[in-house]
Amino acid sequence: MTEKAIRIPLRTKLLITFVGIAVIPLIFLGYGAVMEIKSAITDNVLEQNLEIANIVAQELNQIVKNAQNIIETAIRNPSVKKMEFETAKHSLKSLVENFEIFDELYLISTDYDGLSIKKKEGYVLTTEKKEEMEEITQIWQMIFYFGESHGYISPVFFTRWGKTYPYLYMGFQIRNELYQLVGVIIAKLNLTEIWPIVNRIQIGHTGFAFVIDDNFRLMAHSNSQEVICRPMQTHPAARMVFNSQSGGGRNEFKDSERAKYFLSAYAKLKDYYSSKELKQYLRINWGVIVEQESDEAYQKVYIMFHQAVYMLLISFLIAIFISMYLAHNFTASLKKLVIGAQNIARGDLATSLTVSSNDEIGELTEQFDKMRIDLRKKIDEMEILIEVSKDISSVLDYRQLLKKILDKNIQVLDADTGSIMLFDDTSSELTIEASYGLPPDVVRNTRVSPGEGIVGWVFRIRKELIIFDTKKEPGFAELKGRSVEEGCLMSAPLIAKDKILGVVNVRKKVAYSFDKKDLDLFRALSIHAAIAIDNAKLYRQAVTDGLTKLYNHQYFQQKMDSEIERSRYSNKPFSMMITDIDHFKSFNDTYGHQVGDRVLRTVSRLLESSVREFDMVARYGGEEFAVICPGIGKDEAMIPAERIRKSVEEYEFMVDGKKVPITISIGVSEYGKDATEKKNLIECADRSLYYAKENGRNRVIKFSTEIIKNE
Known about the structure:
Elements: H1 10-75, H2 78-81, H3 85-98, E1 102-109, E2 114-118, E3 122-126, H4 134-146, E4 152-153, E5 157-158, E6 166-175, E7 181-190, H5 195-199, E8 208-212, E9 218-221, H6 236-243, E10 248-255, E11 260-268, E12 287-293, H7 294-297, H8 299-345, H9 360-393, H10 398-413, E13 417-424, E14 429-436, H11 440-445, E15 447-448, H12 453-461, E16 465-467, H13 476-480, E17 488-496, E18 499-508, H14 516-543, H15 553-570, E19 574-581, H16 584-591, H17 593-610, E20 616-621, E21 624-630, H18 634-650, E22 653-655, E23 658-660, E24 664-670, H19 678-694, E25 700-702, H20 705-710
Parallel strand pairs: 24-25
Antiparallel strand pairs: 1-2, 1-7, 2-3, 4-6, 5-6, 6-7, 8-9, 8-12, 10-11, 11-12, 13-14, 13-18, 14-15, 16-17, 17-18, 19-21, 19-24, 20-21, 22-23
């Protein structure tokens, strides 16, 4: 009797076949997809950290370069060049008071006599011996030996008393007109100014950023100031900063002290200098490191892995009933997800992930595609912000900076019109300082009080605003105080160092042209713009007249010197004007000095609006103003001069509800034809002005030999 063969049920065979053909390969495919996703996330996180490190390095580099530019500007001061300590102390003291990065300034002659200015102690003349100022003496010697071409930057020092903070010294040689060495200028830079830049870095719950000097000591840390000056030689990423030959890098490291893995990226500051910019002894060699715990970065991967396991278990149970049909659909959907993950791992963020299934894989694909879209958006916005920051950081002139900022907003947001309105402390009103696409009379006459209208409301509450349809928005016409046209409007406050400077506005003629994404980008642009405007205002305050907000007499004299040098070098002419308000003394006696001051401010605005953007307008003294017109002779300069005269004559100056006539006389001279020395050129313009006043006033006269004959 033969034994009966063991029969395996068909359902069992089908299950075994499905597990062997479908489930097991699906396990490998799922694992491969998770690894691809993990690899993609690793690359994305490392790339993001590297971009952040590069941005921080660029900003730190810009802080040092700005300090260098300020000191080099101070060296050009005649009193500094001549080592006139009593005269120089005012301008140097202004630098220490207005720029937080400067803790101390030293102006020291070759005989080691000099001037020291400290933020808390004011200024003192000093003849201290070298051994009494050990650090300054060392810096003084280094500048004499190595600072001939471009100056010298010291290593980073740390305070040895009280709270630990980093600082360094920057110094330059000072030479007289004969290029003889007469002394040095040394600035002590307070490097705690870099802490806010590092402190704002927030990456998840475990991410942080820190900066080290070339001696592996911590200069700044986003999580704690208590670790400042701590040596970091054992930190793997810190070692890579100075061992690597490239400008930056990224990798996953294991921190032996904390027994954890970190995704680290680093950038070196010295790589942002070209050989044409700074010599060896004026370079800084710091490292910026951005890290995040690997476990936190891979958290989504772990979630995806668990979801994949659950789906495999469910698929195994369902396979008993629907076998190959479920296997086919399951693997097809998963394959598309793997392809999408591979595309992202290769850096392709443009190709969307599309899976038609309504199961867990479809949901996972949808979430992964949202992550792809968000990542692309953030990268695009970061590129725009970096480009805008680079563009506006290179502009020093205040008016040109405002125009540059507004132009960039118009370009990036594709707006039709726009304006930058800044708060005037004197009048307590917001006025248009830069505009695009607005009529000249609107720019000239618009004045808004805080809380008044849309701009005043945004200024008061310090919060951005978007109106999708200005014509249909309830209450918008009442706020504007007039009928409004269809369009879309965005307004954002300009806030720097918790101080509101004004409001930036952009508008499109078509309703619903802006969306929430545009508002987010607009908000980020306004933050960068506010910082640039605040820095420019600090510089402008040192060189402008308090009443008229025009450049002051001292800056006019410096500008004349630079224009004369440029004209001699390029062999191109330039012209200048001196203007005087007619009968202004009698006007002051009749209406009072407060009304007279209002006239001076109004005439100042008319002068600025009547000349080119790169022409310079200054208050020469009293009711006299001066204008420098680069690149044109006096014949061409007669056009803007006549435009100035006409705009003042036609402006309706109202006093107690009555129109008061105001006119202006102008004298014009040309460098080269009329004079080749600054004093004589100014005198020619002044004589032309006098001739205009003697011959009826309210006229423009260019210098000629006829004026000399008639004197």
